[in-house]
Amino acid sequence: MSTMDLIDFKSVFDRAVSNHLTIVEKLSELYPNIERLAHLMGTCIARGGKVMWMGNGGSAADSQHLASELVGRFRRERRGLASIALTTDSSVLTSVGNDFSFEYIFARQVEALGRPGDILVGISTSGNSANISAGIQMGRKLGLTTVGLLGGNGGKVAELCDLALIVPANDTPRVQEAHILIGHILCELIEADHDLATTAN
Ligand SMILES: O=C(CO)[C@@H](O)[C@H](O)[C@H](O)[C@H](O)COP(=O)(O)O
Ligand SMILES: [Zn+2]
Questions:
Q1: Which residues does the UniProt record annotate as the domain SIS (predicted)?
Q2: Which of 20, 112, 131, 136 has the fewest CB atoms lying closer than 10 Å?
């Protein structure tokens, strides 16, 4: 028997689309905060700051994806915009995880690389990953603007960060799909900023 026989992939697809539509309808409540965050990110970068991203698993991939949209290009020709994912340096991740603890893998990088005025985004579908909470706490201590891109009820991270964007759903993959949609909207808004689009480094 093949996997195709075991999984009714058409119904998985239908349920995913229907879940996604429900989430997208609810996302309208988040629009003001998405616009606010895009403005904060644009201003931060224009002033010489950077946007840092962190997340676990699929959200680690989202962190890299969104940093690359800013450093490289989303849609428009413009200068590179300062952004970094804290999920990519295997030597840092393994040494900090091994010598300190896994909980500290992002906090240590925030301590080393973060500067007051930078923006730190923690992406977590549960809002309860200990390493994201620790990273956000370090960011706050050092004067960064801290943001949670979250799911469920926002969890512990929502209580810790300056700005929480919570996708009101509990199914991890569906929340992740909404997160990347929000991330792409942020990139589009930031890139539409005339000063960032035209100012040279
Ligand atoms: O991509 C997926 C599930 O779709 C997984 O890799 C998922 O990201 C991992 O289980 C994460 O560790 C979940 O962490 P979080 O979103 O609760 O912070
Ligand atoms: Zn996933």
A1: 41-197
A2: 112
DSSP letter assigned to residue 189: H
63 lines ligand 1 (CB under 6 A): no
For 47, other C-beta atoms within 10 Å of its C-beta total 8
pTM of model > 0.95: no
Q: Is 180 in the pocket of ligand 1 (CB under 6 A)?
A: no
Ligand 1 pocket, 131 CB below 6 A? no
Instruction: For residue 183, say whether it is annotated as part of any ligand binding site.
Output: no
Give residue 117's region: left, alpha or beta (phi > 0; psi -120 to 50).
left
ipTM tops the 0.95 cut: yes
Q: Which residues are registered as beta bridge partners of 151?
A: 167
**Ligand 1, atom 9, residue with closest C-alpha:** 57
Q: What is the pLDDT of residues 80-135, one digit of tens each?
A: 999 999 999 999 999 999 999 999 999 999 999 999 999 999 999 999 999 999 99
> Over the stretch 140-199, which tens digit does the pLDDT of each residue have?
999 999 999 999 999 999 999 999 999 989 999 999 999 999 999 999 999 998 677 665
Q: Going by C-beta distance under 8 Å and a sequence separation of 6 or more, which residues neighbour residue 101?
A: none
Extract the tokens encoding 187. 């990139």
For 55, phi then psi, to 5°, come to -175, 165
